[in-house]
Amino acid sequence: MIYREAGQFKTTYKSDQALLPIAQDRFFVMALIAFAYIVIPMVANDYWLNSIFLQFFIFSLAALGLNILTGYAGQLSLGTGGFMACGAFSAFKLATSFPDLHIVFVLFLAGLITAVVGMFFGIPSLRIKGFYLAVATLAAQFFLLWLFNRVPWFTNYSSSGVISPPPIKLFGDYYITGTEATNLTQYFFTLTLVIVLALAARNIIRGHIGRSWMAIRDMDIAAEIIGISPLKAKLSAFAVSSFYCGIAGALWAFLYTGGWRGFRYPKIILGAIHDYHWWFGFYPGLICWCGIYCGTADFSQFRSGVIRFGVIRFFGNAY
Amino acid sequence: MFQAFFVDPFIMIYDTPLFFVEVLVSGLMAGVMYSLVALGFVIIFKASGVFNLAQGAMVLFAALTFVGLWEMGVNPWLSLILSALVMIGFAFSIERIVLRPLVNQDPIIFFMATLGITYFLDGFGQTIWGGEVRSLDIGIPNEPFMDLADMTGLYINKFDVFSAVVCSFLVVILAGFFTKTKIGRALRAVADDHQAALSVGIPLKTIWTIVWSVAGIVGLAAGILWGSKLGVQFALSLIAFKALPVLILGGFTSIPGAILGGLIIGSGEKIAEVYWGEAMGGAIEDWFAYVVALIFLLFRPQGLFGEKIIERV
């Protein structure tokens, strides 16, 4: 950090326990949010809104989920892509089975379903950890994608195996999905969602659950001795993380691609993993990093590889 | 349902045992190819504790270099040597640029760094040599031995046998290298204990360069074999994921483990696909290996031959 908290005295409990206790952080985040709400919509064109920012917000959500699981709870996971697909397909089933359901509820329920699936695939974490767990979660990735591909019920018996979301109204005449949806509506919707969910994540982390995750991450045996149940901590981390990934996947299918051909290559997930190494979870930082990721997505792979590699190479020590 | 799972496959096996042997053999041969990729992982993990996600990219890059040089009109043997040299040069730069500054970091940081290498290599290889699928014909026909087929009715592919021979040749050389030479002994010392090895004067940096070079050359062999089977294309870098369950099965640090794990995974998934695939909706090859690894992990987390230092929770 280029600034210090020297001189910022906290005289009340409230200021001591504030979400962002350092003034610079607070102002930076507020300015960033204001910038995102006011300046970007004024200057950005459709290409930027749709191809860069939308993708960037969705990846931010997925990275938040991964950050919770791997950064905070210390459980290495390669299953993010599978969980995102799970969110996308459950949102699709919900939206087509209950056409009147509001998009927010669709996303929320899709997140919950993914959370249950994530907990199931998190069970191996009770026995193993580290790279072994990574391979175990990779099983989730391949199995889930195969399942959605093979069982026609998930795609409503579409012959091509592609799901296309029905047009859904956000409110009034504003469509959030389908051809009538404007990029601006989608931009504001995902932006708000990212902010709300990031705030929620921040608060979960500060609370009892988040502290138990960090205790498990730092030293699982000691955490168990002081009375934290590894079962609860690990499975809740998988659940919350999958909730985020599920919502990200649903947004990906509904807003960004407008259909789902699936994350066929684990590559994209690897890209998302890349984003979690903002280890101690300064969320605006994590989100900015996703911005770098998506901003470079249009570069050739070679150049974005150099950039990502450079970031790790030069900041790898700092995290 | 019950019948499709527990009765029909066995009847099929009983009725046509020859076909079963064919499936088994082709599975074992595919397993040999998985082992080749897994070998690269094991060599690096053993000597440096780095989980090298870039192995798949190295396979692709090596194969691309080989094909690219050959297409430019270089003699195939010369281009083989040249691509091996390129992989060695690559190992040098990896050690210098990536590993050395990160000494003493968490394993996860190394893991991330290899992820960066993956991105870089994929892009770099395709920038230099182009992204299209290239066919690679190394002169080994992809057809069964006709004499054997006439005599016994058993169809065994020549190419599969060739790759098995190449693989066993490599394993023998590597085993000799690891057990008989001075460098090999140093490698094993580093694998056992970094600090103790350093204190008796084994240069860690040289060792790292050597293991990455060896992994690169093994990757070159894997790339050529896979490339002539599937064509040299981007999908090659994805077979690295298939090597992960092989590693789980064999143990992360064992060379015989990688071989045996590859054979089990290869034959297992072929048999499962042929006999049980129908009942489960087909294409179960995609995830079968991972689920086997998952179940295996619950009972024997260190793998078949792995060291028993894995932390169980």
Output the structural class of chain A: mainly alpha
How many angstroms separate the termini of chain A? 11 Å
Proportion of residues in helical segments of chain A = 55-70%
* Order of the strands making up the biggest sheet of chain A: 1-2
Largest sheet of chain A, in brief, is: 2 strands, antiparallel
Low-confidence parts of chain A: 264-285, 296-301, 313-319
Report what the structure shows.
The complex is a heterodimer of chains A (319) and B (313). Chain A contains 13 helices and two strands, in the order ααααααββααααααα. With 319 residues, chain A is mostly helical. Chain A has a single domain (46-314), classed as ABC transporter involved in vitamin B12 uptake, BtuC (Orthogonal Bundle), CATH 1.10.3470. Chain A has a two-stranded antiparallel sheet. The longest helix of chain A is centred in the first third of the chain and has 27 residues, at 46-72. The model of chain A is unreliable at 264-285, 296-301 and 313-319 (pLDDT under 50). Chain B has 313 residues and is mostly helical. The two termini of chain B are 37 Å apart. Helices cover 75% and strands 0% of the residues of chain B. Chains A and B meet through helix 6, helix 11 and helix 13 of A and helix 6, helix 12 and helix 14 of B.
Topology (elements, then pairings):
The complex is a heterodimer of chains A (319) and B (313).
Chain A: H1 13-16, H2 23-43, H3 46-72, H4 80-97, H5 103-122, H6 131-150, E1 169-171, E2 174-175, H7 183-206, H8 208-218, H9 220-225, H10 230-256, H11 266-274, H12 283-295, H13 301-315
Chain B: H1 2-6, H2 8-15, H3 17-48, H4 55-71, H5 76-99, H6 107-129, H7 146-152, H8 158-180, H9 182-192, H10 194-199, H11 204-230, H12 239-250, H13 255-280, H14 285-299
Short description:
Chain A has 319 residues and is mostly helical.
Give the tags:
heterodimer; A: 319 residues; mainly alpha; ABC transporter involved in vitamin B12 uptake, BtuC; two-stranded antiparallel sheet; 13 helices; 67% helix; flat; disordered C terminus; B: 313 residues
